[in-house]
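Below is a filled-in request sheet from our internal design queue. Each sheet records the structural input a requester submitted and the sequence that came back. We keep these sheets so that new team members can see what a complete request looks like end to end.

REQUESTER: design group, bay 2
PRIORITY: normal
MODE: inverse folding
CHAIN LENGTH: 153
BACKBONE (tokenized):
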């Protein structure tokens, strides 16, 4: 089992988003040849080419497009992690509530009123249909789900 080198993946991600090595090298503050070497190492590790090289232009291959989709999610989660850690350092706890859109507004207001009064809690409310919100709850994207319908199991 090969471990993915996330530094190589980050370099690939910048190259893919910038569209060429020159711009990416400037952003990353590395030489073009060093960047090209890192890209080749990632391609070797994944055992596939990630770009079709047409002169100086780079076009993502099918594998490159898939890799970019994963890299977007990976680095998006990394940014989210940084944000959550910074936020938690401020001694606030995030409480994520899913609320089925058909639920009584009075019930919701009475339920969240004590939470709103607590300065140490950041309240995040997600409204939608029950199926959508149950999926988020199952993926730990919500702490609680308020609904006026019995969940279908």
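RETURNED SEQUENCE:
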């Amino acid at each position: 089992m090969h471990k993915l080198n996330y530094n190589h993946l980050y370099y690939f991600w910048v190259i893919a988003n910038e569209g060429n090595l020159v711009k990416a090298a400037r952003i990353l503050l590395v030489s073009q040849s060093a960047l090209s070497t890192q890209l080749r190492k990632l391609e070797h590790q994944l055992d596939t080419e990630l770009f079709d090289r047409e002169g100086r232009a780079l076009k993502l291959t099918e594998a490159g497009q898939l890799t970019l989709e994963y890299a977007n999610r990976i680095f998006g989660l990394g940014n989210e992690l940084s944000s959550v850690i910074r936020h938690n350092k401020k001694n606030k706890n995030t409480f994520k509530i899913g609320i089925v859109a058909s639920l009584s507004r009075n019930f919701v207001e009475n339920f969240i009123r004590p939470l709103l009064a607590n300065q140490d809690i950041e309240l995040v409310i997600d409204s939608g249909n029950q199926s959508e919100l149950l999926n988020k709850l199952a993926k730990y994207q919500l702490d609680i789900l308020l609904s006026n319908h019995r969940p279908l199991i």
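SHEET NOTES:
- DSSP finds six helices and five strands in the chain.
- The mean pLDDT is 88.
FILED BY: M.R.
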